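Structure (tokenized):
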């Protein structure tokens, strides 16, 4: 990723793609593991459900923000981008995301009364795996197209620094309205990033969220996901 110390829409796009990509990869790998060997503890199962719910919520919010704001903003500036194809990809991913939510509901409901959980959990994990595979098959070529047409270089050529900052704040505010809860999705986003990606993403966040909310106020609520996240 090209380093930048300023707010940049292209950098933010790559960051959220990195978050979702790692989330999908972890979800697929752990889903296979737990389907084969079971959840080692109830806490692990709870953390996994929270992690994958956060993934689905963040992905939904990201696509809604692109459809509602970013694509309309860019249409007159970058006329060669395949907006209709990208929007169609979003529509194709929506039912798969709903299937993920249903599978997570089934995992939770099947494990309320007992642990180790019943065979119904394995069935739900199978449904989860069945939804994740085609979702990934759409996701990876989809983000390759977006990062080609909405690259840092192309966006810098048509948007000045003040407008980058304004758009980033607008898109982040819209995304926050579309996903939640904050105490799960905000740590999910930050802690699925490492190195320069985390630095760039953190730069757009209020200091109080980084210094107090994530490490202190929200800690007990997102901690069950910690085993799936990168270190704070």
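Design, position by position:
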């Amino acid at each position: 990723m090209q380093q930048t110390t300023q707010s940049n829409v292209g950098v933010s796009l790559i960051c959220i793609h990195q978050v979702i990509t790692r989330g999908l990869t972890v979800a697929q790998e752990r889903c296979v593991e737990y389907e084969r060997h079971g959840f080692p503890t109830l806490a692990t199962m709870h953390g996994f459900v929270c992690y994958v719910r956060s993934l689905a919520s963040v992905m939904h919010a990201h696509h809604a923000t692109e459809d509602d704001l970013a694509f309309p903003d860019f249409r007159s500036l970058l006329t060669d981008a395949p907006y209709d194809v990208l929007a169609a990809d979003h529509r194709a991913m929506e039912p798969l995301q709903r299937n993920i939510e249903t599978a997570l509901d089934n995992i939770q409901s099947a494990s309320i009364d007992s642990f180790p959980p019943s065979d119904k959990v394995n069935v739900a994990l199978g449904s989860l795996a069945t939804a994740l595979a085609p979702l990934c098959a759409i996701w990876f070529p989809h983000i390759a197209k977006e990062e080609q047409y909405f690259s840092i270089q192309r966006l810098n050529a048509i948007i000045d620094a003040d407008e980058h900052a304004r758009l980033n704040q607008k898109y982040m505010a819209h995304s926050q309205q579309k996903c939640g809860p904050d105490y799960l999705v905000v740590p999910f986003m930050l802690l699925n990033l490492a190195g320069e990606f985390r630095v760039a993403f953190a730069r757009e966040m209020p200091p109080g969220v980084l210094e107090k909310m994530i490490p202190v106020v929200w800690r007990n609520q997102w901690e069950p996901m910690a085993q799936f996240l990168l270190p704070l």
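Reviewer-requested clarification: Residues 42-75 form the longest helix (34 residues). The CA atoms of residues 96 and 135 lie 6 Å apart.
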